[in-house]
Amino acid sequence: MTYAYKLMDSPVGQLKLVAKDEHLAAILWEHDKPNRVRLGEMVEANESAVLLETERQLREYFAGTRQRFDLPLDFQGTEFQKKVWHALLTIPFGQTRSYTEIAQQVGNVNAVRAVGAANGRNPISIVAPCHRVIGASGELTGFAGGLANKMLLLSLEAGQTSLEAAADDGQRCDVVREATQATRAAKNNAPAKATRHPPSRGTQGSLFGS
């Protein structure tokens, strides 16, 4: 099976968009580990319709004008991994889940470590929002795109910034600093903007408040 790819410059680094036939199969980070996502041979295809549409929707997302993606997806992995990745798609924009919550959602509360491993191998980054999965106490955990990018994405979804507008290095550093402060506040259960409501209240938790 040959995969088609297109490179895209973005506020979170160069992304590699990968298609299988007419479906999006992967969004890989600029410094992704070579074996994190196992795909077959790739050929560059800058005119691929699905990759052009993926790029268009990603640019809208980075500009702060898109909250949901509408793309045909083709996840390549084990059945358990696919369950986890499909669970990621149900996390609403601007909200977060813990690994335990995802384990409960896929029907195995004891599979927290396996959920973490599957989350780390999510092939379709950003669109399948593994950046919205955080530690139970609110801390940011490992992320294939780097923790700075994870903070940027969560900050964007909190309505704190447009990444397209903050693409230069100086503004990007400010965004990272603000996101870091909000994350620390959430971890320390600060009462103001950055409170992540625990799932026991029956509400869906958000790392950053409105």
Can you put this structure into words, describing what you see?
The chain is of the alpha/beta class and about 210 residues long. The protein has a domain at about 5-60: Double Stranded RNA Binding Domain. The chain is about 35% helix and about 10% strand. The protein contains six helices and six strands. The chain has helices spanning about 50-60, 80-90, 100-105, 110-120, 145-155, 170-185, and strands at about 5-10, 15-20, 25-30, 40-45, 95-100, 135. The strands form two sheets. A four-stranded mixed β-sheet has the order 3-2-1-4, covered by helices on one side. It has a two-stranded parallel sheet with strand order 5-6. A hairpin with a 6-residue loop joins strand 1 (about 5-10) and strand 2. Helix 3 (about 100-105) crosses helix 4 and helix 5 (about 145-155) packs across helix 6. The N and C termini lie far apart (about 45 Å). Mean pLDDT is about 80; it is low at about 170-175 and about 180-210. GO terms for molecular function: methylated-DNA-[protein]-cysteine S-methyltransferase activity. This is Methylated-DNA--protein-cysteine methyltransferase. Keywords: Cytoplasm, DNA damage, DNA repair, Methyltransferase, Transferase. It catalyses: a 6-O-methyl-2'-deoxyguanosine in DNA + L-cysteinyl-[protein] = S-methyl-L-cysteinyl-[protein] + a 2'-deoxyguanosine in DNA; a 4-O-methyl-thymidine in DNA + L-cysteinyl-[protein] = a thymidine in DNA + S-methyl-L-cysteinyl-[protein]. Belongs to the MGMT family.
